[in-house]
Amino acid sequence: MIRVSVVVPVKDEAGNAGALAREIQHAVAPVAPDSEIIFVDDGSSDGTIAELQAARDTIPGLRILQHGRNFGQSRAVRTGALAARGEIVVTLDGDGQNDPADIPKLLAEFDGAPPDLGMVAGQRLKRQDNWRKRTASRYGNSLRRWLLDDNARDTCCGLKAFRRSAFLDLPYFDHMHRYLISLMLRDGYEVRFVDVGHRARTRGQSKYGVWDRLKVGIPDLLGVLWLKRRSRGRTETKEL
Fold first, then answer.
1. Which residues 6+ apart lie within 8 Å of 104 measured at CB?
2. How many CA atoms lie within 13 A of 156 on its CB side?
3. Range 4-229 classified under CATH 3.90.550.10
4. Which terminus of the chain, N or C, has less C-beta within 10 A?
5. In angstroms, rounded to a whole number, what is the distance separating the alpha carbons of residues 103 and 101?
6. What is the pLDDT of residues 70-90, one digit of tens each?
7. What's the CA gap between 63 and 199, in Å, rounded?
8. Pair 193, 109: CB distance under 8 Å
9. Has residue 234 got a pLDDT over 80?
10. Local structure of 236: helix, strand or coil
11. Burial category of 212 from C-beta neighbours within 10 Å (exposed 0-12, middle 13-18, buried 19 and up)
12. pTM
């Protein structure tokens, strides 16, 4: 029986994907030998798929899913979660900046935890991004935290672990991956935070720019605020 599924969305990450898959296997196998690794290719046009197929020869449990075209990170995460067989889903970015060695710290929080622990979210220390991204992220997190009251310092950290069933119950929309903490809290789940490392990108290019995030971020933020105000929380149901 599979307990943990690691889901990694990727787009044009040749040079990163294969090495990252091997790092994930090395980090997860000692704490969750009954695990699987799912890479979701979101419309790559480089050698990402070939690199992952080559890695699959030496990594048991590596699965490769492919979108017919680019749909974005949130759709890729949902595709992976829908296909996952594990109770706990771990996500991390496909660029290698999240350190797979931090995954066991997130999983440890679920040991003996109550069922209402829905998510453990990583919070990056000493971010290895340029000053523009760090500044934009700092202001964006401050605005989001003020409006949504989610107590999250780093909501865009890709390293998260959550109960699959809880995630699939959340309302889906594109770009929702930036608001998973608020959405989990909205549904009455507990969210815990764990400090994690962050690494510099060594290959490829970032798929996001400051203005790209700002363009979609404000409408999405207002939409999540509306969803939060229109919810009465998670319902406990019993059959009589």
1. 27, 28, 30, 31
2. 19
3. yes
4. C
5. 6
6. 999 999 999 999 999 999 999
7. 25
8. no
9. no
10. coil
11. exposed
12. 0.87
